[in-house]
Design brief:
With about 575 residues, this protein is α/β, with parallel strands linked by helices. The chain folds into 2 domains: about 280 residues, Rossmann fold (3-Layer(aba) Sandwich); about 250 residues, Rossmann fold. Helices cover about 40% and strands about 20% of the residues.
Length: about 575
């Protein structure tokens, strides 16, 4: 059994791997177990994918994670189907007078090599036939399976508990399940990436009952073949819908009265949280970091708190890390051919040459500057970061709990740090449409920068954050700023990309960063936000000094790699999921 093939101690300090070759050779042969095959694959439902190379532009980390999971599955020949909408609008952002402006671009799947394979339909109270075009794209042992229609709208359009959002989720669930049948796929397991994908499990349940299985036997079957992966720490933040909305968009797609009655009985005061009902149909539940799994406060319909198994998000290092750095990890025996740390990887990290590490960072800076040549800053011009300068970077979604404004709390202290350490600061990230508070926060930051002669020449906001810019900043920046409010970040992966690309990390102990204790990075601490700001500036000053000292710089870089390479590995993440699903 898979669960007995590999054991890694909880902290991953020594990465003791038993029978590793056997496990991954089984993956390579598409014979992980009798339960996985091209006809009975691992099926992964998600509302978003961020994989612009394959024509799909997501909104943030959830989409990036989905894309990385598929790529790792392809690399190790795992039968894997990623089911997701193809949104006919793509969102970009630019600055106009210091304010964020959303720009929409029409896209079509056939422009990116997707093949039209069928048309299925779903129902609403308004129409008994809502056609969905089904497109697929085959990539090795994996495939994209997408549904779309001209009025589908863009990713996360409308209110999270509004009619259009529910329609999109129903289209993904019921339409995606019909799409699988249309291409001959019978899922061995369904992974629900967040509760917005719940309707895929409901569609499977409806089919089983419609074909004659007792409702409660069908519920048991679906529960045992469904994994719910949660990325949101607070259940109150999850979408909920009214009974009337279910009558309009969900019930028309259910063919069995017993299932309709069962769903109707789950409503409380006329409303239903998707997380509550998802929990009922998924026996396996995972959180995306150790801290997240421990503190996520979710309850089932009986009010009982549920437990999540921690599987920390990883990244596809071949997508997000300088290829020469990846080659170094393999050549030096730090990673094996499956991108998993070797038993003595920590010793091998200690033996890395400081000169080689510095040369790799210099190459990363040059790659960043190439990308920046084609990008606009807040002044409408371009930026080039001197090769001998220290570059701080913040690159992630602009949402309240990530606190992108924190380094700009005290302009005088920030000015002193950047000027005294020949440093620059680049920030970039997407402000969600309709998030006027964060749009105003960004405008306030840029106003502060504009009014200060020193900051104006050293702090730059780069427009239209996307995969290309995220990768370039990981390659070319020196210090990563990650300051979410402790307890609110589920995992985060930007910091993983930065560590793998030899950056110093300044962070609060939140999300996946908290997987390793005590801190091996530059930790932001404090009992209040005022204390945290002071700690942040102290760490930025220290980082500026460290960048001038090869021995100290290499020590911290190596300590970070020794602690986090097992966490960062996307192959490790996929292994953990397979062990959970098939043990």
């Amino acid at each position: 059994m898979v669960g007995k093939d590999i054991t890694i101690n909880e902290r991953g300090d020594s990465a003791k791997i038993e029978n590793e070759e056997r496990f991954y050779e089984a993956i390579k042969r598409q014979n992980l177990s009798e339960k996985l095959s091209p006809e009975r694959p691992y099926v992964y439902f998600t509302m978003e994918v961020y994989d612009k190379k394959n024509g799909i532009k997501g909104g943030g980390g959830l989409g990036v994670l989905a894309a990385d999971t598929r790529r790792v599955a392809e690399r190790f020949n795992v039968p894997f189907v990623l089911v997701t909408p193809f949104y006919p609008w793509e969102s970009h952002q630019e600055l106009a007078g210091g304010a964020v402006k959303d720009v929409h671009v029409n896209v079509h799947p056939e422009e990116f090599g997707f093949e039209l394979v069928d048309t299925v339909s779903i129902k609403t109270v308004y129409s008994s036939h809502v056609p969905l075009s089904i497109y697929q794209k085959l990539l090795g042992s994996t495939r994209f399976l997408c549904m779309t229609e001209p009025d589908f709208g863009e990713l996360y359009s409308g209110d999270g508990s509004g009619d259009h959002r529910l329609y999109q989720e129903v289209a993904l669930g019921f339409g995606g399940y019909k799409a699988m049948k249309a291409v001959g796929v019978k899922p061995a397991i369904i992974q629900l990436n967040e509760t917005a994908t719940f309707f895929a499990a409901l569609a499977r349940l409806d089919e089983l009952v419609y074909n004659g299985m007792d409702l409660y036997e069908a519920i048991v079957y679906v529960r045992k073949h469904t994994l719910y992966t949660n990325h949101t720490l607070v259940q109150a933040a999850e979408s909920e819908f009214s009974f009337g909305q279910f009558q309009r968009f969900v019930f028309p797609n259910l063919r069995t009265k017993s299932l309709k009655r069962w769903i109707a009985n789950q409503f409380q005061d006329g409303r239903l949280k998707l997380s509550s009902i998802t929990i009922e149909l998924a026996e396996l539940r995972s959180g995306v970091s150790k801290l997240h799994a421990r503190v996520a406060n979710y309850k089932d319909l009986n009010g009982e708190r549920i437990k999540f198994v921690p599987i920390t998000n990883g990244i596809d290092i071949h997508e997000w890390v300088n290829p020469k750095i990846v080659q170094m990890y393999h050549d030096k025996g730090i990673l094996n051919r499956f991108d998993i740390p070797t038993p003595d990887y920590q010793t091998k990290i200690e033996q890395l040459s400081i000169i080689e590490l510095r040369d790799l960072k210099l190459e990363g800076r040059r790659e960043l500057n190439k990308v920046l040549e084609g990008r606009k800053n807040q002044h409408g011009g371009t930026v080039q970061v001197p090769e001998d300068a220290t570059l701080f970077n913040f690159k992630r979604r602009f949402v309240d709990y990530k606190r992108p404004w924190l380094p700009f709390t005290d302009v005088a202290r920030l000015r002193e740090i950047l000027e005294n350490h020949n440093a620059y600061y680049i920030l970039s990230g997407k402000v969600h449409a309709g998030d006027f508070a964060m749009a105003n926060r960004l405008k306030e930051i840029l106003t502060k920068v504009e009014k200060d002669k020193i900051l104006k020449g050293r702090v730059f906001y780069i427009e239209d954050y996307d995969e290309q810019l995220a990768l370039a900043l990981s390659l070319g920046a020196d210090v990563s700023i990650n300051n979410p409010i402790v307890g609110l970040e589920a995992c985060g992966t930007s910091w993983e990309k930065d560590i793998a690309n030899l950056q110093l990390l300044i962070s609060t102990a939140d999300g996946g960063v908290a997987d390793e204790t005590p801190a091996v990075y530059l930790e932001i601490t404090g009992r209040s936000e005022t204390d945290e700001v002071t700690s942040l500036y102290n760490n930025m000053r220290f980082a500026g000094e460290v960048m001038k000292n090869n021995e100290e710089w290499s020590r911290i870089i190596k300590d970070q790699l020794a602690a986090y390479l097992p966490v960062i590995s996307g192959a490790r993440m996929l292994k953990d999921y397979l062990n959970l699903l098939f043990k």
